[in-house]
Amino acid sequence: xxxxxxxxxxxxxxxxxxxxxxxxxxxxxxxxxxxxxxxxxxxxxxxxxxxxxxxxxxxxxxxxxxxxxxxxxxxxxxxxxxxxxxxxxxxxxxxxxxxxxxxxxxxxxxxxxxxxxxxxxxxxxxxxxxxxxxxxxxxxxxxxxxxxxxxxxxxxxxxxxxxxxxxxxxxxxxxxxxxxxxxxxxxxxxxxxxxxxxxxxxxxxxxxxxxxxxxxxxxxxxxxxxxxxxxxxxxxxxxxxxxxxxxxxxxxxxxxxxxxxxxxxxxxxxxxxxxxxxxxxxxxxxxxxxxxxxxxxxxxxxxxxxxxxxxxxxxxxxxxxx
Length: 322
Hints:
This protein has 322 residues and is of the alpha/beta class.
């Protein structure tokens, strides 16, 4: 089969013939329909996570011979009985995990090996192309929002939430915060076009950190994770509030009394559990989630990556096999 492969860090993906995947005991092979493009793909290309050579892609929809159209749960844990994280259903933080498209071959290919059929969730009528990004972008934002809601101890009557970064994940977070918490949602982003998109999706306000100076927020979700965004969040988080870090741009913030508001919590949120993904798909079937998605052919993967780097993608890009 012909796949898009990264041979070494910081090199373009190449289209090449690779062996068809073979299913072992308990495994299955799916025909890939489409695969979303994610910033984590760029981190693999840059060599900061994962390994090379590799077939990228972890936001995968495909067709299983028995289940029909499916969405793939991609953060595969070790599933050993002695693993506390896997036993608790938290495979995405397993120390010996082997995520699709990061360590194992992913969905930038016509066919893909799945180690356990449990990782295949039937679409049950959901559109494959717009559903593909839920496997990571949508799921990561979903878990981060629920952690932000659950951990905040601020006493504000109506929760004030701040979403940092209005790319694909931030766009999902705006909708989840409205649906799950009826929050007053402010978005900060340096790009006016993304601010406008956030307002279209239901945000109550959008601007930059300069525009929210002096305000306090119960829940902050940082989808960037740079020094500047963490410093900005530290200035506007309420006492007893929470900052949930999702973005992987290497930022840090000083910790200690006097550096942060009293009893404010700073934590990370990583991808999502299999149960989280099931609940998210149920939500997607009940509610009309707006998925800002554009499609490109698999052969255009390098162009899609560049658009993601440049910030010119309005929402999520999905690569199609046809």
